[in-house]
Design a protein that fits this description.
The protein is an alpha+beta fold and 119 residues long. The protein has one domain: Ribosomal Protein S5, domain 2 (2-Layer Sandwich). Helix content is 34%, strand content 20%. It contains three helices and four strands. It has a four-stranded mixed beta sheet with strand order 1-2-4-3, with helices on both faces. Strand 1 and strand 2 form a beta hairpin. The relative contact order is 0.23. The mean pLDDT is 93.
């Protein structure tokens, strides 16, 4: 039997500006040194996640690398995230020079503070 793949399709991501705005208006924010995590309740059955990497991170290559790492972190821990939540992860300037392990530790710490990880 093949191993179960943990995919993270685009349908599980927040992509529309109105969705990001809703999380900003109705959500709670947890701030860290490398990341900011905004969490808002949604009426959907599953969680959805969005990622923001501004030009303060650096050039396009650096922004895309941070975005790919953040998507991988959420994909890896998707079975632990509570349903019916929208999550927006905002990378701060120091995220470009951080390692994957540092980003993952920071994201897990902020997710724990936001109470979005299932026990």
């Amino acid at each position: 039997m093949a191993a179960k793949r943990f995919t993270f399709p685009k349908t599980r991501r927040l992509t529309k500006p109105a969705e990001f705005e809703q999380v900003r208006e109705k959500g709670r924010v947890q701030r860290g040194r490398l990341l900011m995590l905004s969490v808002a309740p949604s009426g959907e059955e599953r969680f959805r996640a969005g990622f923001i990497t501004s030009r303060a991170i650096g050039r396009a290559v650096a922004r895309n690398r941070v975005r790919r790492r953040l998507r991988e972190i959420v994909r890896k821990h998707q079975n632990q995230i509570r349903a019916a939540t929208w999550i927006v992860t905002i990378a701060r300037a120091g995220a470009a020079s951080a390692t994957y392990e540092q980003l993952e530790a920071e994201w897990l710490r902020l997710a724990g503070r936001a109470f979005i990880l299932a026990p």
